[in-house]
Specification:
alpha+beta; elongated
Length: 111
C-alpha cells in the first residue's frame, strides 16, 4: 500500500519501570501517514480476492465514497463496504488479516 498524505504530529513518550518511576518525557515531531480513498482502492485491488465481481463491487463503493466526499456528503458507501468486508471474511480469498488491514484503513479514513 502506498500512502500519499502525511500529517505532522507532536509525540510525547516516556518509560515507567516496575517500581513506578517515570523518566522525564521526551517529545518529537513526526509525520504520520493518513491514507486516502485512493489508497483503500489500491489495497482492495492488490488483495487476494479471487472473485473479480467482488473486487469490482468493493472498488465501486470506494469510487462512490470519493463522489460523496467531493460533494460534502456522508461516506455512506464506506459503511456498505465495511459491511461487505465483514460478511466476506474468510471467503473469496479475503483472509481475516486482509479484512483487518482494510478495516484499519477505513477507520483511519473516517477518524
Amino acid at each position: 500500500m502506498v500512502v500519499r498524505s502525511t500529517i505532522l504530529h507532536k509525540l510525547q513518550y516516556y518509560s515507567v519501570d516496575k517500581a513506578g518511576n517515570k523518566e522525564t518525557p521526551h517529545s518529537r515531531e513526526a509525520g504520520i501517514a493518513k491514507p486516502e480513498l485512493g489508497d483503500l482502492k489500491e489495497s482492495i485491488e492488490d488483495s487476494n480476492i479471487d472473485n473479480e465481481g467482488i473486487t469490482n463491487a468493493m472498488t465501486a463503493k470506494v469510487r462512490a465514497a470519493q463522489h460523496q466526499l467531493d460533494a460534502g456528503h456522508d461516506l455512506n458507501s464506506i459503511n456498505a463496504l465495511t459491511n461487505q468486508l465483514n460478511a466476506l471474511e474468510g471467503k473469496h480469498g479475503l483472509a481475516p488479516q486482509t479484512v483487518l488491514a482494510l478495516l484499519a484503513i477505513i477507520s483511519l479514513l473516517l477518524g
